[in-house]
Each structure stands twice: as structure tokens, then as C-alpha cells.
Amino acid sequence: MALSGSYNVIIDAGGVSIAGAAVAVSGDTAVPPVSETLTAGTAVATWVQTDGDTGTATLAEGHGLTSGTYDVYWSGGVQYGCTGTVTENDLALDGGSGDDLPASGETGMIVCKQQTFDCAFDGDNAVLLGAFCDQRAMLTFLDSGSAVLYSLELSAGVPWGWHGEAGASPITGNAVAQITMSCGSATAGTLKFTGLQDAIS
């Protein structure tokens, strides 16, 4: 039996309110839903850039971070999937994708170690996708070989969505095997992701 969902947009600006009619969507199965608490990001005390994808963040004493894969946030952008190596209070960052890391001395930066969620679905067969986080956040969709299929930055409190009548799926190619996620705020976030897909033909 097919599952049902809906997609709706409401816009209110300049004294004008636009409420679109909900688009009814049906699919054969649900995309594995995600409802996760994101660990709060960690504020950077000082920042030194080496180049666009390399630099060192100095952290406050007692930060509790360990080496791993990090997303880096600042007011002008985000670089995700960086290799992070922790040595005492220094976090050396290398590689990743997204925006070039900011110049030395940037303030207000947040670093957050990625969390991973197993979420197997085929974006080519998706008919409805939606995501929301109450804090700034990053979602990265990976295939079974950890290749990036799609990346999505969420603004705090702003839902993101797509449905099949709006055009081609944003996630194409190999099937999704995992989602990595991180919080771009020093406050823990609640992230949700869901959707519908048709059966693989």
C-alpha cells in the first residue's frame, strides 16, 4: 500500500501572506526517518588560516574534543568534511568541501565533529524529502564508499523540502548509505529528516 505525504509553502512578507495549496505526494516506502539531537558545536578561541582548506583553531581549556571529521562554521560560510587532528588545545583542520576557510583572525567560528546516521535510500527514486533543525546545521549524504552525493546547509528554524513535481531529485547517482550531520551553534540542536520514495525499478 502506498504511503502518503504532503508539501506546503507559506510566505509572509511586506504585509502580504501567501499560503500555497498543499501538494499531495504518495510513495511506496518511507525514507528512513532521522530525529537526532546534535551535539553542540564548540567555539573557536583563535583562528589561523594556512590556505583555503587548511588552518588551526585554538580551543578553550577543557574542550573535550578528539580527532575526527569536522564541519567548520562562520558567518560567511561553512566547510564540511575536514580532517581534524586535536593536539592539546589546537585543532588542525585539513581538506573538506564547501566554502574556503576564512582569513586568520576570524571571530565567531564554530567547529563540530560530525555525527553519522545509517540511512539507506535511493535519491533517484525519492518523491518527497524534508529536513529541519532548530539550530544551524549541515547534512551530507554519502554513498557506501563515503563519496558525497549531496550536501545541505540548514539555517536555524528554517525547513527545507523538495517534492517530485518541483523537478529532478537533488540527490542522484549512487544510493545513499549514510548521512553525516553537525551543529553550527554552541547550543545543541534537534534535527529531523524524512521523505518518501518509490520502489527501485
Give a verbal description of the structure.
This protein is mostly beta strands and 201 residues long. The protein has two domains: 29-38 and 115-197, Jelly Rolls, CATH 2.60.120; 42-113. The chain is 0% helix and 58% strand. The strands form five sheets. Strands 7, 8, 9, 10, 11, 12, 13 and 14 form an eight-stranded antiparallel sheet that branches. Strands 5, 6, 16, 19 and 21 form a five-stranded antiparallel sheet that branches. The chain has a four-stranded antiparallel sheet with strand order 15-20-17-18, with no helix packed on it. A hairpin with a 2-residue loop joins strand 10 (68-74) and strand 11 (77-87). The model has no long low-confidence stretch (mean pLDDT 94).
Give me some keywords for this one.
2 domains, Jelly Rolls, 8-stranded antiparallel sheet, 5-stranded antiparallel sheet, 201 residues, mainly beta
By CATH, the topology of the largest domain is: Jelly Rolls
> Biggest sheet, in brief?
8 strands, antiparallel
Number of domains: 2
Which percent range fits the helix content?
under 10%
Termini distance?
A: 17 Å
Shape: globular
**CATH C-level label of the largest domain:** Mainly Beta
How many extended strands? Answer: 21
Number of helices: 0
Order of helices and strands: EEEEEEEEEEEEEEEEEEEEE
Q: Which CATH architecture of the largest domain is right?
A: Sandwich
Average pLDDT for all residues: 94
Percent in strands: over 45%
